[in-house]
Amino acid sequence: MAKIQRCNYVMYLLVLILLMMNIFFFIKELESKSKCSEQEKKKLSWSQRAAEEAEAVASISCSGHGKAYLDGLVVGGIPTCECYTCYAGPDCSLLIPNCSANAFDSTTQWGPKRLGYSWDPLFYEPFWMENAESSAVVIAGWHRMAYSFPDPTSHLSQELEKTIRKLHSVANNAITDGRYIAIGKINKESVSSKLKQMEWAVVKDVNVYNRTKEYIHQADMEMSKDTLLGALTILGVVTEGDGKKFFNFAHEILRDRWEKISHIFSFSKRFSIQHIPTQYCTFLNRAREPSPAFTWVKCKREEDKNCTHVFLEEANIRGHPGSGFFADHTYVRLGLVTRQHDFDMLISRLEQFISQEEENGYCISPSINNQ
C-alpha cells in the first residue's frame, strides 16, 4: 500500500513539473512576441504615422461618390471629400440635377478641369484598390536627394531598369536585350498617377542613348527620384506573376463597355460608330474582342452639322469634338476609360436618347447595364 502511495506521489510530482514547465515556456513565448512587437513598432517609428494617416484618409467614404486625399483641402483637421461628376456636398451625397454625363474628360463638380486632349484612366481605380498593399509607397524625406544615381552612367535605378525590361518581355512588344532604356517625362494617360509626368524609350544606338540622356539632363535635371520609386512599385505590381492580371482587368472592362455601347447604337439610324473587328492578340495568344478606349460617333443626318452640340443639347452628354482630332464636326468622341459611375450615367443617357428615334422601333432590354 505504501509503495502504491509513493508511486502516485511521484506521478503527481511529474505532472506538476510538466505543468510548471509548460507555463514557463508559454510565458517566455508571450514575452518574446511582446518584444518582437515592440521591436516592430520601433522599426516603424518614422513611417508609422504616415501609414496611419494614409489609411485614415482612405477610409473616408464620401458616400461612395467621391474620395479624400492626403494632399486635399483640410477643414477642421480632416481632409475634405473631392466629389465625382454630378455630386456635391461635404460628403458628396447631393446629386446635381440636370448634370451632363461625362464622356469628355475627368471632371469635378466644377466642370472639365482642362481643355487638353489627355485622359485620366480612372477605370483602373478598382484594380489598384484591390492591390492597395502591394502598390503603396512610403517615401522618406531624404530619399535620394541627389540628382544622379551612384552609377554616373545611368539615370535610373538598376531595379527599375530590370522591371521595365521584364514588362516588355511579358508584353512581348519590344526587344530589350543589348539595348538601352532612356527615361523622360510626359503628361499623358497612364496605368497609374505614379507613372504620369514619366515615359521611356528602348534605344539601340549608344550615341542616340547618350544624346537622349544629355537632353533630359539639360531640360529637366533628371527625373524626380520619388517618381521613379513610385514607378518601380507600380510596374512591379503590373509584372507580377505572368504579368497578365493587370492587362486582363483592363481588357475585360473595356470589352464589356464596348459591347454595351455597340448594342445601343445598333438600334440607331441617326448615328453610327466605328467598326472594330475581332483580331488575334499575340499577348493573350488568342483572338481578342474589341476593347477600345473611345467610341467615335458620326451624326448621319445632314442637319446635324455639329455632332458634339447634338449630344450635349439633346442628350446632355459631354463628348469631345471630332475636330480636335483632325476629323470634321460631324463626329464626336465618347470616352470609355472613366469611372464606372460616369460610364453608367453615359449608358443611361444614351438609352434614353436613342429610344427617341421614333422611326426606329427602338427597344433596349432593361438589363443592358447588367450584361
Q: Would you mind describing this structure in some detail?
A:
Helices cover 41% and strands 15% of the residues. The chain has 371 residues and is an alpha+beta fold. The protein has a four-stranded antiparallel sheet with strand order 12-15-18-17, covered by helices on one side. Strands 1-4 form a two-stranded antiparallel ribbon. The model is unreliable at 106-118 and 366-371 (pLDDT under 50).
Question: How are the secondary structure elements laid out?
Answer:
Layout (H helix, E strand, L loop, with lengths): L1 H42 L4 H11 L7 E3 L5 E2 L2 E2 L1 E3 L3 E2 L5 E2 L5 E2 L4 E2 L2 E2 L12 H6 L1 H4 L22 H14 L8 E5 L14 E5 L2 H15 L4 H14 L6 H21 L5 E3 L5 E3 L4 E3 L5 E6 L7 H9 L1 E2 L1 E2 L9 E5 L4 H15 L17
Parallel strand pairs: 7-16
Antiparallel strand pairs: 1-4, 2-3, 5-6, 8-9, 10-11, 12-15, 13-14, 15-18, 17-18
Helix pairs in contact: 5-7, 8-10
Provide a brief overview of the structure.
Helices cover 41% and strands 15% of the residues. It is built from ten helices and 18 strands. It is extended and about 105 Å long.
What coarse outline follows from CA principal-axis ratios? extended
Number of helices: 10
Reading the helices and strands in chain order gives HHEEEEEEEEEHHHEEHHHEEEEHEEEH
Strand content: 5-15%
Helix content: 40-55%
What's the oligomerization state?
single chain
**Helices and strands: which structural class?**
alpha+beta
Biggest sheet layout: 4 strands, antiparallel
Mean pLDDT: 83
The Cα radius of gyration reads 29 Å
Query: Reading side by side through the largest sheet, how are the strands ordered?
Result: 12-15-18-17
Protein name: Tryptophan aminotransferase-related protein 3
Organism: Nicotiana tabacum (Common tobacco)
Keywords: Aminotransferase, Transferase
